[in-house]
């Protein structure tokens, strides 16, 4: 299979639509990490993503009869744009079915390249079901985003270019993983020609379908998939990619939201490219690899797989970057509610930069403050700061890794309620579309009272929402049954330390 895949990569017809992209050095990052860091610039493709390679190669293999009937795909991301451009180049009708929550910038980009866009459903599964109905009705050919050998071969030309361009030392290539088409193609080509070069997959920790499959020894379906890195939000690794990659890759690394945001900043500082979060995923994994292994003096390459991000998301990415670099500690600190306490607290912190300070009077004895403090990367300095504060007599809760604190508490005003009442608190991901909130409220019993609500638009397909509810005693054991019927992802936060300290 390996030799057959490499032959298909060598024969792939991608350059009628795609460009051979350069490898950019990352001098600032290289100095900081004591390794030579290289970035393969797939963000420079005509559709700002590598996806055009696989889409065009698959379409080029179609018969004239198939081309005459047209092609179709269900996609909310980069595959849609790659297919639209490929169809335009080949003079083929293309229909793209997208969920209604797809950001308008992506819808317009597909339409601008001549494809017909059909908006259907709130999730990819609904869009896919409608695409299959249209295939039955019109005889379109479905162009899959990753689970096809011709798509894999098209993506594998990224690996071919890497070895042609980087002829000297190359210790490891870090590849972002969604459905697996890119890593399967890159691993096949690289391992066939230079088996000593490590090929390491990088996944978002809340959509790590390849890691789950490798752990289980077979493909599995994730119960839930995070959507922050939309380009890799896949619940199951592709059958074809998994059959190729499972025995070729050296490791899989998972990274979190903050680490991806930090990598977006790193790419910008060295190349001035604004990567999407899934595009910066591989660099986040590269940095984690160095942290875990202590690698020095190596030549490490990551693939910037795309730059299709909403401008609205940049504020949220910037907010999370310092946390991803471990340069900011988010702490809940209790200080006495009396004059001079804040000055004494700042004196204890010393010359560190205070990045954020939130406080509201709530109790005559104690003041709970939400504070951000600049620290050195690595975690040791944060631990030293917490130790110093506790030795000075301050109760401290470390909220640096607390999603509720970072997404909601730091932006909430209003303080605590004047009197105690029982409240159930949950964090949700709502689809960004009209009617999403009404759908949520409609499914709740009429005698539940909304006691807390916080939402911020992050420019993504899903919004993050914090909801507090006063639930009658008889319903408290069945709260999550109602939420399951709605179908939105949720997390219970009633016992979260950030909520207890600042809102309860």
TrEMBL record:
It comes from Modicisalibacter xianhensis. GO terms for biological process: isoleucine biosynthetic process; L-serine catabolic process; L-threonine catabolic process. The keyword Lyase applies. One of its GO terms (molecular function) is threonine deaminase activity. PANTHER family: THREONINE DEHYDRATASE, MITOCHONDRIAL, THREONINE DEHYDRATASE, MITOCHONDRIAL-RELATED. It is an enzyme of class 4 (lyase). Catalyzes the anaerobic formation of alpha-ketobutyrate and ammonia from threonine in a two-step reaction. The first step involved a dehydration of threonine and a production of enamine intermediates (aminocrotonate), which tautomerizes to its imine form (iminobutyrate). Both intermediates are unstable and short-lived. The second step is the nonenzymatic hydrolysis of the enamine/imine intermediates to form 2-ketobutyrate and free ammonia. In the low water environment of the cell, the second step is accelerated by RidA. This is L-threonine dehydratase. InterPro entries: ACT-like_dom_sf (IPR045865), Ser/Thr_Dehydratase (IPR050147), TD_ACT-like (IPR001721), TD_ACT-like_sf (IPR038110), Thr_deHydtase_biosynth (IPR005787), TrpB-like_PALP (IPR001926), TrpB-like_PALP_sf (IPR036052). Pfam families: PALP, Thr_dehydrat_C. Pathway: Amino-acid biosynthesis; L-isoleucine biosynthesis; 2-oxobutanoate from L-threonine: step 1/1. Residues 329-401, 424-495 form the ACT-like domain. It catalyses: L-threonine = 2-oxobutanoate + NH4(+). Keywords: Amino-acid biosynthesis, Branched-chain amino acid biosynthesis, Isoleucine biosynthesis, Lyase, Pyridoxal phosphate, Repeat. Belongs to the serine/threonine dehydratase family. The gene is ilvA. Homotetramer. Its EC number is 4.3.1.19. Coiled coil: none annotated. Its cofactor is pyridoxal 5'-phosphate.
């Amino acid at each position: 299979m390996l030799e057959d895949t490499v032959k298909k990569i060598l024969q792939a017809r991608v350059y009628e639509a795609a460009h051979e992209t350069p490898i950019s050095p990352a001098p600032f990052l290289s100095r900081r990490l004591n390794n030579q860091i290289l970035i393969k610039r797939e963000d420079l493709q005509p559709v700002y993503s590598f996806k055009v390679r696989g889409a065009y190669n698959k379409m080029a293999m179609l018969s004239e009869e198939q081309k005459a009937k047209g092609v179709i795909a269900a996609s909310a991301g980069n595959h849609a744009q790659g297919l639209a451009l490929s169809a335009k180049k080949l003079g083929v009708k293309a229909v793209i079915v997208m969920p209604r929550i797809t950001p308008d910038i992506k819808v317009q980009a597909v339409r601008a390249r001549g494809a017909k866009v059909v908006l259907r459903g709130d999730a990819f599964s609904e869009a896919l079901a409608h695409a299959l109905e249209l295939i039955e009705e019109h005889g379109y050919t479905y162009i899959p985003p990753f689970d096809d050998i011709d798509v894999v071969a098209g993506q594998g030309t990224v690996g071919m270019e890497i070895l042609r361009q980087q002829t000297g030392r190359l210790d490891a290539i870090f590849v972002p993983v969604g459905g697996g088409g890119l890593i399967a193609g890159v691993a096949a080509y690289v391992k066939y020609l230079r088996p000593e070069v490590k090929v390491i997959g990088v996944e978002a920790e809340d959509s790590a379908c390849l890691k789950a499959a490798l752990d289980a020894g077979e493909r599995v379906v994730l119960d839930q998939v995070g959507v922050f890195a939309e380009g890799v939000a896949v619940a199951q690794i592709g059958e074809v990619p998994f059959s190729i990659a499972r025995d070729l890759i050296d490791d899989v690394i998972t990274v979190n939201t903050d680490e991806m945001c930090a990598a977006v900043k790193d790419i910008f500082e060295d190349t001035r490219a604004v990567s999407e979060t899934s595009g910066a995923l591989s660099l986040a994994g590269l940095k984690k690899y160095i942290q875990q292994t202590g690698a020095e003096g190596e030549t490490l390459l990551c693939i910037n797989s795309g730059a299709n991000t909403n401008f609205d998301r940049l504020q949220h990415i910037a907010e999370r970057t310092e946390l991803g670099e471990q340069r900011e500690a988010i702490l809940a600190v209790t200080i006495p509610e009396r004059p001079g306490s804040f000055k004494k607290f700042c004196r204890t912190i010393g010359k560190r930069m205070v990045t954020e300070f939130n406080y509201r009077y709530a109790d005559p004895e104690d003041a709970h403050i939400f504070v951000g403090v600049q620290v050195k990367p690595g975690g040791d300095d944060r631990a030293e700061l917490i130790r110093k504060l506790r030795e000075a007599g301050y109760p401290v809760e470390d909220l640096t890794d607390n999603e509720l604190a970072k997404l909601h508490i730091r932006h909430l005003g209003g303080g605590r309620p004047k009197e105690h009442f029982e409240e159930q608190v949950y964090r949700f991901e709502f689809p960004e579309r009209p009617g999403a909130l009404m759908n949520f409220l409609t499914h709740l019993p009429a005698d539940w009272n909304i006691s807390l609500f916080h939402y911020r638009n992050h420019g993504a397909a899903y919004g993050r929402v914090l909801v507090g509810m006063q639930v009658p005693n008889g319903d408290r054991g069945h709260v999550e049954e109602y939420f399951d019927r709605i179908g939105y992802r949720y997390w219970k936060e009633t016992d979260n330390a950030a909520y207890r300290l600042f809102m309860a």
